[in-house]
Amino acid sequence: MDTQANREAIAATPDKIWTRDFVLICLANFFIFLGFQMTLPTIPLFVKELGGSDQLIGVVVGIFTFSALLFRPYAGHSLETKGRRFVYMIGLTVFVLSVGSYAFVASIVLLFIMRMVQGVGWGFSTTATGTIATDLIPPKRRGEGMGYFGLSGNLALAFGPSLGLSFLGYMSFTGLFLICASLGLMALLLSSKIRYKKVEALAHQTATVKFDIFEKTAIQPSILLFFITVTFGGIASFLPLYAAEKDITGIELYFLVYAIFLMLSRTFAGKLYDKKGHIFVFPPGATLILFAMLLLSWLPNTAVMLVAAALYGLGFGSVQPALQAWSVQKAPENRKGMANATFFSFFDLGVGIGAIVFGQLAYVFGYGIIYTTAAGSVMSSILIYIYLYLKTRKAHVS
Q1: Are 167 and 294 in contact (CB under 8 A)?
Q2: What pTM, to 2 d.p., does this model score?
Q3: 3-state secondary structure the chain
């Protein structure tokens, strides 16, 4: 009955984005991201408390993303064979249990193991949630809809890092991690109310669903994303430590300003992508990220740090939803899940490699080199985009 009613509602409002189920997936995404973002700047501090070095911080952060990367192809395949609900619920459950376990971790070895487990939950849940949102957004408004969907994660980012750092002033790591797990539980409860796209509705397609590790139509935007998200590993893992080393205050404000400008970009970047294409979104967005990295490599005071936060927020908030919409745009209907898996796999790969490599660089050269190297990575993404764009134009002319 729900499935029939859902089909009738979609038929009546084919271009409507803000449906009941879209609101629910946005709320669930907000809570899981809030729990995740609260751990993002605090896990490195937790590693330090357990006696770890900068090298170990990079490894602990990196192993999480590599674990998520390893399981994303399975998540993408399962989305098309076992269904959206199954994959999302499994991912959220594993996330809640793993983050909750941090409250009882007393060694880096055990933390390392549970970070791998959390990566599995994160890989399943975020691959699923992007695909569920794609199902619910009208194709003609996909860029706009993914921008709105991204706002749910951005709102979490606006509060999460600052909340996590602030809570540590009033409670132990144990209390913080239990709160983060509770937020994941809230996401799990909300997600149980969503009316998901049924595997049975794709019965005529499942015979052609094969297991592989990527969707080829999503490779180009995913490669561009990889070089962008390398920067994210440097910021999430080391910026609080870098700022403290330079006696720069206001690191909580960095994440808040970043999130505000990230949300601002979501209000127009998706619509611009739908109307004009990625040529009007990616180059200017990536250029803003490049300038942000250069400012962070300099970082003389709090004001420069906050300007970098604004530039990074505008840039990343424009680039990420545009690249995600591009990733799923040309994928067959029975490959949307794998397209999202490919997209987030490259996201994870960038963050993971960035965290590990930057940890080694910081150990040898100091924190400043991280952001100079990150600027080079962004420049690589811009040059690859120019090459792909010119290659595509040449092919069309021919």
Answers
A1: no
A2: 0.76
A3: CHHHHHHHHHHHCCCCCCCHHHHHHHHHHHHHHHHHHHHCCHHHHHHHHCCCCHHHHHHHHHHHHHHHHHHHHHHHHHHHHCCHHHHHHHHHHHHHHHHHHHHHCCCHHHHHHHHHHHHHHHHHHHHHHHHHHHHHCCHHHHHHHHHHHHHHHHHHHHHHHHHHHHHCCCCCHHHHHHHHHHHHHHHHHHHCCCCCCCCHHHHHHHCCCCCCCCCHHHHHHHHHHHHHHHHHHHHHHHHHHHHHHCCCCCHHHHHHHHHHHHHHHHCCHHHHHHHHCHHHCHHHHHHHHHHHHHHHHHCCCHHHHHHHHHHHHHHHHHHHHHHHHHHHHCCCHHHHHHHHHHHHHHHHHHHHHHHHHHHHHHHHHCCHHHHHHHHHHHHHHHHHHHHHHHHHHHHHHC
CA dihedral 64, 286, 309, 227 (to 10 degrees): 20
Of residues 53 and 379, which shows the higher confidence score? 379
Tens of pLDDT, residue by residue over 175-233, are: 999 999 999 999 999 999 999 877 654 444 444 555 566 788 899 999 999 999 999 87
Q: What is the pLDDT of residues 93-145, one digit of tens each?
A: 999 999 999 999 999 999 999 999 999 999 899 889 988 998 898 888 887 88
Q: What is the mean pLDDT of residues 34-42?
A: 90
CATH for 18-194+213-397, options being 1.20.1250.20, 3.20.20.80, 1.10.287.3610, 1.10.1060.10: 1.20.1250.20
Higher pLDDT, 314 or 237: 314
Residue 206 has a pLDDT of 44
